Amino acid sequence: LTSSSLLAATSVFAFGLVEPSLPKSSLSHWLPQGQLLAAEMPASEIYEQTISSVVTLYPVDKDFNTLGNFGSGFVVHASGLIVTNAHVLHSETAAVAVTFADGSYGVAMVVGYDGQGRDLAALQLVGDFQLPTLPLATGAMPRIGEAVYAIGAPRGFSNTMTSGIVGNIAPDQTQILHNAAINGGNSGGPLLNDQG
Fold it and tell me: Of the candidates 13, 36, 41, which has an alpha carbon nearest to the alpha carbon of residue 161?
C-alpha cells in the first residue's frame, strides 16, 4: 500500500479515547501519519490499494451471538487497531467479529471511544497481526467540489465503493458533507480522497 491520505468520515485529525468498561488498554501514539500523493489516482486504483484495510464489523454479545447490527471500519495500525463509528457498536457489545475483504476473519475488542463526544470508537484485533493500514488525514481539509470515495458494507454488501464530491464542510471542521451514496452498513468505513 502506497502512502495515502484518508479523510475519516468525521474528519478526525487526532482524538482522545475514553476507555469503556471492556478490556483496559493504552492507545497512546497509535495514529500513523499520512502523506499526500503527487497525482490523482483512478477510482479503481484507489479501491485496489485500500480495500485490504477495510473491514466489515459484526458486534456480538458475551455468547458470541450477533446483535443484529453491522458496519464498517478500517485498520489504522498494522497490529490490528481499527477505527469505526461508535454507533456501529451496541451497548451489549462484548466483542466484534471482523471480516476482511479477502474473506478472512478475526475477533476484536472495543478499546476506546472518542473522549470529545464524536461518533468514533477504536477496536483491537485479538492476536498477532501485520496488516495493511489506512492513515488518518493530517493537514488541510478537502475543498468543496473535490472527489471522494466511500468504502464499506452498505446493506451487507461488503467491499462496496461509491463516489461523490465534497459539498461542504462544517464550520468547526468536524464533518464533511458529501454525496457519495451511504446506506446502513457503510457506517465506520473510510471516506477517501482522489489520492487514496
Answer: 41
Contact 130, 154 (CB under 8 A): no
Please list the active-site residues: 87, 119, 187
Q: Do 117 and 145 meet the contact criterion of CB atoms below 8 Å apart?
A: no
Q: Are 109 and 124 in contact (CB under 8 A)?
A: yes
Measured CA to CA, the distance from residue 86 to residue 90 in angstroms comes to: 8
Tell me: the pLDDT tens digits for 172-182?
888 899 999 98
Nearest to 136 by CA among 83, 98, 180: 83
What is the Cα Rg of the chain in Å? 15
Work out the number of other CB atoms within 10 angstroms of the CB of residue 86.
18
Reported as a single tens digit per residue, the pLDDT across 28-51 is 333 344 444 445 789 999 999 999
CA pair distance 191, 178, nearest whole angstrom: 10
| DSSP per residue, 145-170 | T-EEEEEE-GGG--SEEEEEEEEEE-
Eight-class DSSP state of 53: G
Question: 140-169: b or e for each residue (b if 16 or more CB lie within 10 Å)?
Answer: eebeeebbbbbbbbbeeebbbbbbbbbeeb
